[in-house]
Design goal:
With 153 residues, the chain is an alpha+beta fold. It is built from 3 helices and 5 strands; from the N terminus they run E-H-H-E-E-E-E-H. It comes from Thiorhodococcus minor.
Length: 153
Amino acid sequence: MSSSADSPNTTFDWPVRVYYEDTDAAGVVYYANYLRFMERGRTEWLRALGYEQDELREREGILFVVRSVSLDYLASARFNDRLTVTSSVPHHGGASLEFEQRIIRDADQTCCCRGRVKVASLDAATMRPKRMPAHLLSGILSGLAHQAQASME
């Protein structure tokens, strides 16, 4: 069961700077590295809500893994650009979260890349889908609501 009505439409922003190692021979961000930036955004979003992924594995027996990705590359980011990775969760299920993510160049607010990333919750022992514990899903959703409230103030 997927829900969007009870998921606040709020975003989490995470700053990223483009390092030389992130670029290709043309001096622009190598296309696969946008996925790395998005991963950092999702991980830091969970961390900001108080959830460390290694602790979720140990205490709750769950892992979050990427199930599917859809990306649109819109503009090139270059060495030393400051970027902001924005992440939101417009839909969720009992064992999944769907992220909408954008990578914005800070200097001119150009969207360099946007994507949808579906993340599944798996049982750490069996690697099979596993519903997120109710308290975890509730904590994530209430954390989103708290972020939305704080951004309005």
